[in-house]
Amino acid sequence: xxxxxxxxxxxxxxxxxxxxxxxxxxxxxxxxxxxxxxxxxxxxxxxxxxxxxxxxxxxxxxxxxxxxxxxxxxxxxxxxxxxxxxxxxxxxxxxxxxxxxxxxxxxxxxxxxxxxxxxxxxxxxxxxxxxxxxxxxxxxxxxxxxxxxxxxxxxxxxxxxxxxxxxxxxxxxxxxxxxxxxxxxxxxxxxxxxxxxxxxxxxxxxxxxxxxxxxxxxxxxxxxxxxxxxxxxxxxxxxxxxxxxxxxxxxxxxxxxxxxxxxxxxxxxxxxxxxxxxxxxxxxxxxxxxxxxxxxxxxxxxxxxxxxxxxxxxxxxxxxxxxxxxxxxxxxxxxxxxxxxxxxxxxxxxxxxxxxxxxxxxxxxxxxxxxxxxxxxxxxxxxxxxxxxxxxxxxxxxxxxxxxxxxxxxxxxxxxxxxxxxxxxxxxxxxxxxxxxxxxxxxxxxxxxxxxxxxxxxxxxxxxxxxxxxxxxxxxxxxxxxxxxxxxxxxxxxxxxxxxxxxxxxxxxxxxxxxxxxxxxxxxxxxxxxxxxxxxxxxxxxxxxxxxxx
Length: 550
Fold this sequence. Notes:
Layout: H1 5-8, H2 12-37, E1 42-47, H3 63-72, E2 77-79, E3 90-92, E4 95-100, E5 106-111, H4 125-138, H5 144-153, E6 154-161, E7 164-169, H6 176-181, E8 218-226, E9 229-237, E10 253-258, H7 262-270, E11 276-277, H8 283-289, E12 296-310, H9 320-329, H10 332-339, E13 344-346, H11 370-379, E14 388-395, H12 403-415, E15 420-427, H13 429-438, E16 443-448, H14 460-463, H15 478-489, H16 493-510, E17 513-525, E18 529-530, E19 546-547
Parallel strand pairs: 1-10, 1-11, 14-15, 14-16
Antiparallel strand pairs: 2-3, 4-5, 5-7, 6-7, 8-9, 9-10, 11-17, 12-16, 12-17, 13-17, 18-19
């Protein structure tokens, strides 16, 4: 009998089939593992940020606190994602329509029907009025209602029926819709936010009791802290969200993990522990990650600024000549080129580059203008033999990107004048905030994301004696107050810009603050993540994120 090839061993065809089966099993095992560790209905986000104080709109005045308020709450209007936040970019949220009177003093909103809080209570105009009045009446000195000046803007609120709310203003406030879109204006559940309390605080083991918000796309279902530091949060899709039928949120579960610093966050990216990394990633890591194929780097418009603050009750920083000298010693280009590798811009005004009303007022003092520094400080008694000593504070726990590096460049810049000595002091964010309230830091670095996209929000909260109280810097000027108040009530664009020009000129003369730089925004994700929007609002929209695979 003729012996066939098959009788002597396995055919090539069979070998190919076996090899394919093995490959399929290996790939199936790998992708099965990926689906277990990175399920498609869950996005794991890493950050070095944290909740500054609480998730109560009457109190929260920080980027991350507002991020969670936006995810778990809702306002009357929203800003179209990816837009420039112009007059035509406001879209309905809890209000379906709105109008203003010809004189700009009355705004009327028609509310969405059928919306319910998590406890089954119906949403009505009462909750809107309650939420805004609560913030104004609590008058938290470190919160947004004083910082933005809600009580100065809003005279009274009427609720003619359950689905109509009417705001009567003290003056025509040009960015009123922007104000209504900001998280401080989000509607709280009155049953979880009593009027008499200063704020709703973190309650260990009870996420529901830790937040008064529940009209947003997500519900806060977990919030873990250890020794006062955030460890993990969980957001689960709100089945009763008014826009749930529109497919929001796009991902059912968001898990937020908190990392100690940018180095730890980068390690989590490299290890594949997280799907998204946002705040804070160093410029060096951004440049490096842009070369990788296993991650995606998203970069967007930046309206974030950082600046120096002087504590004017500590001598000699009560003297504007000393403050001007320090402002002239700053080398902004060194910061943006060495710390941020060109991913940030030098800033010469508190109003960001590209925004209406911007003027490079601080350019008149120069960068590293050491002749001016030495001449000015000589007039107040400082020279090479008797140097001005500056205790410069910076945030050290990752709340701001590259803060130690920024402080080091500032130290080098100021000391290069030959007449200034800088002592650096770092503190984690909770301590930093406490020190600021105690008014114990002579010179310190802060950052600012816009509450609402308008130059007013870069002026009033810092320079008006009422709005700027949260800074605790003891700067007060009746002339500045008057200019700021006029700019808030002026609706003519040309006249407004003229007022902002005067404000910025006076700012450079008084120098209570020194603008440093304006940053771009970036995030890093696994390639399967989509829906990241980094626009002028600086809003991080969890509900738009989704994955195309595990």
